[in-house]
Each structure stands twice: as structure tokens, then as C-alpha cells.
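Hi everyone,

Forwarding the result from last night's run.
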Amino acid sequence: MAQSSSTRSYLPAAERRAGIVAAAARIGIDEGLERITLRHVAEQVGVRPGLINHYFPEAEALVADAFVQTTRTEREMLFAHEADDSALTRIAALLSRAFAPQSAEMSRLWLNARNLSRYNEALRHAVSEEETANRTLLTRLILSGIEAGESRSEHRDESALLILILLDALTGYANEELTEVTPLVVPVVYASVERELGLPAGALARRTT
């Protein structure tokens, strides 16, 4: 049931802003970041465009915030783990989740954001910051595996960057049918990551089966 106008008017500012960003994030996933306009978000939230403009005078900032919210949710999913999981188990889980069919929409969002960021400075900064956050977490995870004696890497920062580049391998195909591409790319990524971390062939792949 739709909220009455009086109920909508008295939402706390923080809750109102969160609802706007959540609506914009859903539009970004479903329709593309370029479809996030003040008017379109207002329609989804059920308010007048002027209210959206009050919180986001420029649509570019709303696009960036929507992207950040979505990618942070993705990061929580990719790096989720149990307290007793080893570093290698966590890396294997990350790879498996990144190549899961439901991750295709995130690949499309990243592709969309990188293209659109050419014209949106706020989004360009957001993309850079989210990439850095992912790289930082993965670098720490690789270091944990090295310290535990599970893996080897002389340059953990470079290894993290390489792995993220490999995980982006499907992004270029994100707008295509992935059923034929994925089986070709995934084994190459696993083998490359295993070599980079000084692991025997199949060490990570076996942990996902």
C-alpha cells in the first residue's frame, strides 16, 4: 500500500535520503546508471522531484552514491566468510561468487560505471575509491595466506591487482550472452591465480566443488 503524503513528509532526513539512494541503486541495476534522474527516482519513491533535488541538487552525486551503495553490498558478499575459514578458502569462495550467474548484473554495472564516469566526476571518484577498497581487502587476504604459510607471493599488492583484473575478465562480455564465454574464462582465471600465489594446479578450484 502506498504511503500517504503526510506520512512521507515526516520521514527523518537520514531515512529519506537512504530511501532515495536505495531507489536510485535499484534503477542503476535494472535500467542503467544513466537512467538515474531526479524525476525518475522521484517516481520510484513516490514524491515530487523537488524533494529529491533537496537532498541531491545534482543528479551526478546521486548516481555516484547509488553506485557506491551497490558495490559495497557486492563487496560484503564477495568477502563474506566464517571466522575459522582459511585465507585460501576465502579466496576460492571469492572467485566462485564472482563468477556466479547472479554476478552478471554487477559486471554490467561496473562496465556501465566505468563508461559513464568519463562524463561524471563524482562517479569517477567513486569508481576509483571502490576499486581501491576491493584491492585493499584482497591484499590483506593474500598477506594472511602468506603469513599462514598457505601461499607465496613476493609482491602481494601486485598479486591483488592481477587477481582483480582477472575477475574483470568477463566484464567486457557483460552485455553479451555469457553461457559460452564463462566456461572458457573461469579455468584460465583459476589457473592464473593459483600460479600467482604459488599453489599447485587445482588447489583453489577444488575448494569450490
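The domain at 64-208 is CATH 1.10.357.10 (Tetracycline Repressor; domain 2).

Cheers,
N.
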